[in-house]
């Protein structure tokens, strides 16, 4: 992966690619070999453990702008798309966090995404704040926010790391993100295909 690509793209474009599901520039591998499932789960669990230590929850809490949150929390019956049309992020915390997630994903020798999820304040919903290179996720259903999956609720409430295989051919490890007060403010989804190529083509 060329990190320079992400640095040269404007923040609004990065936000749209990460949250709205823009098509990533990915080198396609010619053939795929099934990864040993036990080894893969250990890989993803180790990346999740490192992510819990490295991802800065204080920075994550400043990614989405207050203006964007207001549009998410107060829907307009005359404009059902207002939240998406007005979604915005603060450039510095967004890029800092995205770069950290990219580097964490590169710890595996096959394609992995590390996505950041955060609860929507004053609701029972959650949103994917940062998505990454392969657009992999077992939980994202499109849009800015969605109902909180029980697996994510468990991680946010208990602080435990959880491995999930909800969708055929995919495995995710969910791990908490904490701020400087040791409060759980979000979680990462470390996710890969169980038929991932053995080596990622950079």
Q: What are its keywords?
A:
8 helices; about 200 residues; single chain; about 35% helix; alpha+beta; Beta-Lactamase; disordered N terminus
In terms of quaternary structure, what is this?
single chain
Regions with pLDDT < 50 over 5+ consecutive residues? 1-33
Largest sheet: 6 strands, antiparallel
| Architecture (CATH level 2) name | 2-Layer Sandwich
Question: CATH topology, what is it called?
Answer: Beta-Lactamase
Helix content: 25-40%
Strand order of the largest sheet: 3-2-1-6-5-4
Q: What's the number of domains?
A: 1
Counting helices, strands and paired strands, the structural category is alpha+beta
H-E order: HHHHHHHEEEHEEE
The CATH superfamily name is PAS domain
For the record, the CATH class is Alpha Beta
Query: What is the straight-line distance between the termini?
Result: 5 Å
In DSSP terms (H or I, runs of 4 or more residues), the helix count works out at 8
Please give the radius of gyration in angstroms.
16 Å
Fraction in beta strands: 15-25%
Number of strands: 6
Mean pLDDT: 81
Task: Give an overview in words.
- The chain has 202 residues and is an alpha+beta fold.
- It has one domain (11-18, 33-193): Beta-Lactamase, CATH 3.30.450.
- Helix content is 36%, strand content 18%.
- It contains eight helices and six strands.
- It has a six-stranded antiparallel sheet with strand order 3-2-1-6-5-4, sandwiched between helices.
């Amino acid at each position: 992966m060329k990190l320079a690509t992400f640095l040269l793209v404007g923040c609004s474009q990065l936000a749209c690619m990460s949250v709205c599901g823009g098509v990533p520039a990915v080198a396609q591998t010619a053939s795929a070999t099934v990864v040993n499932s036990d080894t893969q789960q250990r890989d993803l669990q180790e990346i999740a453990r490192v992510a819990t230590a490295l991802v800065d929850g204080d920075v994550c809490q400043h990614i989405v702008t207050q203006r964007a949150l207001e549009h998410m929390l107060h829907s307009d019956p005359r404009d059902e798309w207002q939240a998406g049309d007005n979604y915005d992020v603060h450039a510095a915390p967004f890029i800092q966090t995205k770069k950290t997630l990219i580097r964490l994903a590169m710890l595996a020798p096959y394609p992995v995404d590390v996505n950041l999820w955060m609860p929507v304040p004053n609701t029972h919903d959650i949103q994917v704040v940062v998505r990454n290179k392969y657009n992999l996720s077992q939980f994202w259903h499109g849009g800015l926010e969605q109902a909180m999956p029980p697996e994510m609720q468990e991680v946010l409430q208990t602080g435990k790391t959880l491995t999930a295989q909800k969708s055929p051919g995919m495995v995710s490890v969910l791990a908490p993100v904490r701020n400087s007060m040791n409060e759980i403010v979000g979680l990462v989804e470390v996710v890969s295909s169980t038929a991932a190529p053995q080596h990622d083509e950079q």
